[in-house]
Amino acid sequence: GDITGDGVPDIVLGNYSHTAGFDYWAGVVYILPGMGL
Predict the structure, then answer these.
(1) Calpha distance 9→11 (Å, rounded)
(2) In the chain, what are the helix, strand and coil shares in percent, each to the nearest 5?
(3) 6: alpha, beta or left, given left = phi > 0 and alpha = psi -120 to 50?
(4) Is-contact 25 37, C-beta < 8 A?
(5) For the chain, how many structural domains are there in total?
(6) Residue 34 phi, psi (nearest 5)
(7) Range of the domain at 20
(8) pTM for the predicted model, two decimal places
(9) Distance (Å, rounded) from C-alpha 14 to C-alpha 3?
């Protein structure tokens, strides 16, 4: 996710991306936006 909204993905548990359109969890990229599981 990108909690700062600066376009740089943040690796945070349960963080929903605001800009990147991807969610990161434990360094794993999920292609579906809004999926932080």
Answers:
(1) 7
(2) 0, 15, 85
(3) alpha
(4) yes
(5) 1
(6) 85, 0
(7) 1-37
(8) 0.25
(9) 10
Q: What is the pLDDT of residues 1-37, one digit of tens each?
A: 566 666 666 655 555 544 444 554 445 555 555 544 4
Total residue length of the chain: 37
Exposure string of 5-30, with b = 16+ CB inside 10 Å and e = fewer, is eeeebbeeeebebeebebbbbeeeee
C-beta atoms surrounding 36 within 10 Å:
17
Query: 10: phi > 0 → left, psi -120 to 50 → alpha, else beta; which?
Result: beta
- Per the structure block, which two tokens stand in for 30? 């999920």
How far, rounded to the nearest angstrom, does the alpha carbon of residue 36 sit from its chain's CA centroid? 7
The residue type at 12 = V
